[in-house]
Design brief:
Length: 349
């Protein structure tokens, strides 16, 4: 049985970071962006080791599943490696789940596994089955920007400092981003005003405390209730306590979003939750009044759960910028109308 999640030690100058692609790799047209991201790691004093899967991509993955799994597990178990950073997510991380040895990982010292999207397919069982905390936040390729906005830049103190920083909601978010093939050093195009909202439309302040767990709903909805997504069983273990669930939608239309949330509900993911944070939806908004919208889909899927506090349009996921959330770590979040959202993470909470 897994114990409460363990946080990896902070990174320090001279540490070795392994780069591999357990889902999608990087195609040649995006090598300039990748090189910029690698240079930024080196500027932080980190050493970099590239895996064989990093610069490959064919049929929506970097390599056959057994090769991807073997390389990832090798890096995760290598005592010289302090962190593993894939370039981004993809589509096919789910193929690795039965190929990874979570018992060996549970017996090993945890190290940082950083990113989001399809990578949360791996982060969730790392927490539930191996008791590893990991970082759900900006992907490696996002670090290739000329300048990082404050929200994205919070990645660094989260990885390097013994005490994670207090993070605040962004001021603006990106509705349409640049093409990295044309402009490898492009920054985020932050044009829209950020506004976290209560799903119920309420204005009473919220103070949410719980253990952060979650990720990309597109893929987590596929593993909920399996041996790799048994959140109900994990929550019942000693030392876990209430969980603070966070979810984001990459590609799902409203009805698929509704089905995914209903699946989580049937598998007990919302039972005993301290709250639910939902990121801005990446798919195009549905505005036709006769069609179900994304927000209506969330409301319908959660109908009857009035005791569950839900915040939407959060800085989580595919509509950047996003917070650096430590999967499995205790957290405290405060929200009030017109006030900056504040997130504290750490064992003292």
């Amino acid at each position: 049985m897994a114990t409460a999640p363990r946080r990896p030690r902070p990174l320090r100058e001279g540490d070795l970071v392994a780069l591999c692609a357990p889902s999608s790799g990087v195609e040649p047209a995006l090598f300039p962006r990748l090189e910029r991201a690698i240079a930024r790691l080196q500027q932080r004093g980190l050493r970099v080791r590239e895996g064989q899967t990093l610069r490959r991509e064919h049929k929506q993955c970097s390599a056959p599943a057994d090769e991807r799994a073997a390389e990832l597990q090798s890096f995760l178990l290598d005592p010289e490696v302090a962190a593993v950073m894939p370039p981004w997510g993809g589509e096919r991380a789910i193929e690795l789940l039965p190929l990874l040895d979570f018992e060996r990982l549970a017996a090993a010292e945890p190290k940082w596994f950083s990113g989001f999207s399809d990578l949360s397919t791996l982060q969730l069982p790392l927490a539930l089955r191996a008791s590893w905390m990991s970082l759900h936040g900006p992907n490696l390729m996002e670090l290739g920007a000329e300048a990082l906005d404050p929200t994205t830049a919070a990645l660094w103190p989260t990885l390097f400092d013994a005490a994670p920083p207090v993070q605040r909601a962004s001021e603006r978010w990106q509705a349409k981003g640049p093409d990295w093939r044309d402009t490898p050093g492009a920054n985020l195009n932050l044009t829209e005003t950020t506004r976290w909202r209560r799903l119920d439309g309420g204005t009473e302040p919220l103070h949410l405390c719980g253990r952060l767990i979650g990720g990309c709903l597109d893929t987590l909805g596929r593993i909920a209730g399996t041996a790799y997504g048994d959140l109900r069983g994990w929550r019942g273990q000693a030392g876990i306590g209430p969980h603070l669930l966070f979810l984001e939608n990459c590609e799902m239309a409203p009805c698929e979003l509704l089905r995914a949330l209903c699946s989580l509900r049937l598998h007990g993911w919302f039972d005993g939750a301290a709250g639910l944070l939902i990121g801005r939806h990446a798919p195009a908004a549905v505005t036709a009044p006769e069609r179900l919208s994304h927000e209506e889909a969330v409301r319908d899927a959660l109908a009857g759960l009035e005791a569950l506090p839900v915040l939407i349009d959060a800085d989580i996921g595919h509509v950047p910028p996003q917070l650096s959330l430590i999967q499995g770590e205790s957290a405290e979040l405060r929200w009030a109308p017109g006030m900056p959202v504040e997130l504290h993470q750490g064992p003292a909470i």
